[in-house]
Target: Topoisomerase II
Amino acid sequence: MPRYYVDLDISREDYLRYYRGEAASVRAVDRQGRTVRFPASALRAHVTHSGVQGSFCLVTDGAYRLLEFARI
Model:
């Protein structure tokens, strides 16, 4: 299963775009320079008062569907 490690710094204001449904997916660059896209709904469990900050691991299946999104 492919794993991608990303460092996110999404401000509260930017996260509100996802919350309102203005953006359905998040695009980020992993630590190896690869661009990854995943559903914005994966962020919900990690939102704080200031937005979403931290390092995360994305795990996908063979068809690159998101299986796990966890803070590391």
About this structure: Residues 12-19 form the longest helix (8 residues). The first strand starts at residue 3 and ends at 11. The beta strands are 3-11, 25-29, 35-39, 51-60, 66-71.
